[in-house]
Amino acid sequence: MKNLKRYAVCVFCSLVLLGASAACLAQSPFTGTWRTTVAQRKFRKRVESFFIHQGKYYCASCHPRFVVPADGHFHPVIGGAYNMIRVKVVNPHSIAVTTRMNGQTVYKQTRTLSSDGNLLTVITTAYPPRRAKGSQPITLTTVCRRKGPAPAGTLSISGRWAIEKVSGRGMTTVIKVVGNQMTMTSPGGNSFTARFDGKLYPVKGKSFFNQVALKRINADTIEVIDVRNGRIVERDKLTVHGNTLNVAAKQEPSGALTTYVAHRG
């Protein structure tokens, strides 16, 4: 009888341990492939500011700010997702911008002013890293509205521009959460693996941030903190509801907020 009782206890303990293991291995609600709908993006306090003055391009909303000749040649810059930029003035109402990171094109962009001078249409083609096999360039069209007149003496395309809407092919992001660790891979080939411990982990690829920290707020919400060269540049709050992922991305230090929705599939 003693042996029978001992056997029953062992079986019971084994079942408890198996149940606990299954609970630990249960798939996280964040795990999956998420596709964003670009047209659903909303922007608050998101303002881009640049000026063309006396043959030079001033990026006032960049962090850090920089000034380069707008002469159609590449010039070095520091601190961003690219380390070379070329700005070419096509005419007083249009410029072309190309950026590179270590010799590889990051994006090509055209900015065109409307006839009334109040709208700016920006067409951006972003290129994935060479090692991102199968990844294709992504082209987005952004429409911005002028926030005040162009400064005196600058090219008419100059000024402060509030983003109103973005259109183009949605992006796909793959997330995998196992235990206390998350791996995220973006369409451009950027990726990271980090633990939910608030510590900094490296980011692979050519993103505008090179480190990331994760915090688990609750079972359905996590915070992703983007860091570039030791400085926080963005805080992303991800909240999952079934097959819908809501993202609120707040830029630092400007406080500009972008919200969008991704769907599992």
Question: Topology, pairings included?
Answer:
Blueprint lengths: L1 H24 L6 E5 L5 E3 L2 E7 L2 E4 L6 E4 L1 E6 L7 E8 L2 E8 L2 E10 L5 E8 L11 E9 L12 E10 L3 E7 L2 E5 L5 E5 L5 E2 L8 E8 L2 E8 L2 E11 L2 E8 L5 E8 L1
Antiparallel strand pairs: 1-13, 1-21, 2-21, 3-4, 3-12, 4-5, 6-7, 7-8, 8-9, 9-10, 10-11, 11-12, 13-14, 14-15, 16-17, 17-18, 18-19, 19-20, 20-21
How would you describe this protein?
- The protein has two domains: 28-42 and 171-264, Lipocalin (Beta Barrel); 46-168, no CATH class.
- It is 9% helix and 54% strand.
- The protein has one helix and 21 strands.
- It has one helix at 2-25, and strands at residues 32-36, 42-44, 47-53, 56-59, 66-69, 71-76, 84-91, 94-101, 104-113, 119-126, 138-146, 159-168, 172-178, 181-185, 191-195, 201-202, 211-218, 221-228, 231-241, 244-251, 257-264.
- Strands 1, 2, 13, 14, 15, 16, 17, 18, 19, 20 and 21 form an eleven-stranded antiparallel sheet that branches.
- The radius of gyration is 23 Å and the shape is globular.
- The termini are far apart.
- Residues 1-25 have low confidence and may be disordered.
